[in-house]
Amino acid sequence: xxxxxxxxIPAHPLDNVIWEALSSRQAGFAQGSGGxxxxxxxxxxxxxxxxxxxxxxxxxxxxAGREPIAVFVxxxxxxxxxxxxxxxxPLVQMVWHEDxxxxxxxxxxxxxxxxxVLSAADSPAMIELTQLTKPGPFGARTHExxxxxxxxxxxxxxxxxxxxMKVPGYTEVSAVCTHxxxxxxxxxxxxxxxxxxxxxxxxxxxxxxSRADNTRAIKLYERLGFRHRLDGLFVVLAHT
Length: 240
Prior knowledge:
The protein contains 5 helices and 11 strands. With 240 residues, the chain is α+β, with helices and mostly antiparallel strands. The longest helix has 15 residues, at 187-201.
């Protein structure tokens, strides 16, 4: 376990969420150097800085491997020697604002929700689905971050959602995705609701991130009970 350098207490635990997660509830998944922390590569490429305004790129370089690293920032990053920006875009953070989760209904064509709890044995299928649908980075150990749920059709995993970052009092809903052949059936709403209910049952508040241009997903999350909290940027960096 990494003993992380603690950052100054932010105004809110979600303000610098990647650093906060890796220096608190998910320290067991952290690798650190100086003022930078990242999830172990098998979990994913997310990294954070103790003080984003004076980001420790030297510390981040010590953590970088051959694969790109992703960070969340408030303002565009200036080009830096030894780093190449390979992807990025506007990001929105949303937080649950209802007293309780909506009820879980039946999946189309079934007499029940059709939801299954996913386990380590399902990791290859989860990776295959996320590689196809690209809801965000998903590695061989991402399933270890929390509870994941899925819906199958003819034995194949066609939709899923689960938990990712965890900070004091909050858990992120993540990896919400549906196979292109099975969209329009309400699976995303059903699975997001299942994750939300689990988070609320623990006395925590659900939150999530979405690309700002994913208006369809944002409308779904708003309909379920999430509200916009802040705007930011995700930046994918390669160390050259």
